[in-house]
Amino acid sequence: MDRRRFLALAGAAACAPLASRAAADDPARAYRRAIVIDALGGPGDYGGADDGSTLYDAPLVEAVRTFQRRHLLADDGEVGAATLRELNVPVTARIDQLRINLERGRWVLNQIGDGDLLVVDIAGYGVRLLHDRQVVWRARAIVGQPYRQTPVFRAEIDSVVFNPTWTVPPGILAKDVLPQEQRGQDVLARKHLRAYARDGTPVDPAQIDWGRYSVRDFPYVLRQDSGDDNSLGRVKINFPNPYLVYLHDTPTRSLFDRSQRTFSSGCIRIERPLELVERLLADPAHWDAAAVRAAVDAGTTRTVRLARRVPVLLIYWTADEDGDGRLVFKRDVYRRDARLLRALDGQFRFGTRVRA
After folding, report:
1. Alpha helices in 145-269 (DSSP H)
2. Is the CB of residue 220 less than 8 Å from the CB of residue 203?
3. 251: Cβ contacts below 8 Å, ≥ 6 apart
């Protein structure tokens, strides 16, 4: 986007916020004016003639849908509460949003080179596979909840696991499983979890004194067998890291249809994971789509090492471009932008680091 256009839009951004009530004097005209003012890409989201009509006509509906897609909203063409909220963001705030994400880009864009790179777009709820800096595959993703955030870091994918089991990690044990069992909610039965001693001996959950333990001294391992109900679905993608985070399939695929997808405990659930696995294994002679499907259908847990590790970059960007070069603005679901903006606007202090 041309910097001069941003400055011009900032100068024109003094219009009053749109009313949320449907009985405004002239809502269609107000909506049209806001869309034109907010149009930050190319000729603008609104492509119809500005003839002063008050009709909510087809060009205006399509303009709203374009605006919604650029802000990761459900593109239903209706100016509901979520769309109004984004329409009412001042252009000056959008410019600050771009400044914030240009700074984030400065930290990591030098790490994007030739070859393969998997990018997890946390705020955009998406995953992209790049080859020689070009997107060759993309899919929707589900990321961590605001109070169980997906971390930002770089690692290398080294293996995939077909039909994985799931071992309850310490965080979920402490925050979910132990409290629920101590309240008598029998989460092990609901989640089809088995209990084992540290030496692998099966343990009857009814014989465990749940009220006796905390996560620090819990002497058992809780594991979910592979299968259709497994929390990791049918495939898991490993990249060793200190956060115990990985990519995986999911049995609850309906959540991908939500516009805001913060439902996990920090790991990243992806749609169409078998397509990504085929690309990561990069061995058409042995691992084409049919072979990947056969490994899943076999039902046995199997780990396959990648012949060549693939870098993975987990980023948190609240502004970006889509495949057509149009600006996309995302909600700051983890509320990190304000802190970084204060740092950008403040005095430079050597050695200061901002988590953003």
Report:
1. 170-172, 178-182, 187-191
2. yes
3. 228, 229, 230, 231, 233
User: Shortest CA distance to 124 belongs to which of 321, 272, 312?
Assistant: 321
Tokens matching residue 234: 């049918």
| 51 in Cβ contact with 37 (< 8 Å) | no
Backbone angles phi, psi at 45, to 5 degrees: -70, -30
Task: Tell me the per-residue pLDDT of 159-195, one tens digit each, with 9 for 90 and over.
Answer: 999 999 999 999 999 999 999 999 988 889 988 999 9
Strand pairing class (134-144; 262-264): parallel
* Contacts of 47 by beta carbon, 8 Å cutoff, 6+ apart: 59, 62, 63
Distance CA 188, CA 191 (A): 5
User: What is the per-residue pLDDT across 100-153, written as a single tens digit (0 to 9) for each?
Assistant: 999 999 998 888 888 999 999 999 999 999 999 999 999 999 999 999 999 999
Question: Residues near 46 by Cβ (< 8 Å), separated by ≥ 6?
Answer: 32, 35, 36, 39, 59, 60, 63
pTM: 0.85
